[in-house]
Amino acid sequence: EIVLTQSPATLSLSPGERATLSCRASQSISSYLAWYQQKPGQVPSLLIYDASNRATGIPARFSGSGSGTDFTLTISSLEPEDFAVYYCQQRSNWPLTFGGGTKVEIK
Amino acid sequence: QVQLVESGGGVVQPGRSLRLSCAASGFTFSSYAMHWVRQAPGKGLEWVAVISYDGSNKYYADSVKGRFTISRDNSKNMLYLQMNSLRTEDTALYYCSREYCSSSSCYAIFDIWGQGTVVTVSS
Lengths: 107, 123
Description:
Mean pLDDT of chain B: 97
Oligomer: heterodimer
Helix content of chain A: under 10%
Order of helices and strands of chain B: EEEEEEEEEEE
Order of helices and strands of chain A: EEEEEEEEEEE
Largest sheet of chain A: 7 strands, mixed
């Protein structure tokens, strides 16, 4: 099973700041990584797939990068609605696995 | 609109069974692989199982293999999860989710999620 490790667990930032979230895989997953956002009390929503492709309707301030084992989700300038938990997920191997999440909170 | 609605959750004793259902609408259900993903209280996401668009292929997380069975009825636009030999660690919110497909390919990621149904396993 591929283990995804997200860091940091919590990121405390102010609106307008840049957020950089990391996801590291226990073995190479090529570019088969997705990112999701989950706001409190809501279902997850797809942000990024295959490391760098924004899903439909996702603002340009969200960007993804990386390949192999190291991936990054960047939010260029945090909006109030971006404070949430973010999960990465790999689709390289079965079983599909998620990272433990990074909470982006208001500083 | 595209919608997934889960049902069937509840409180059940360890060792007992429960069957979850997911009603799909607003899209061609028979064209999509479907998944179950769960989230324990206050915890992260855990993928549970997938079934191909025609039901011919199924995969499971190791934690549920041999106990859970995923199935679908394309004539009724329904997805199911039969859960047997339930354990306290199966307590979670269970989401039904659709696999994402672009115009050319499908990817084992999730673009549509239901609101979930809560399963509590407790004596």
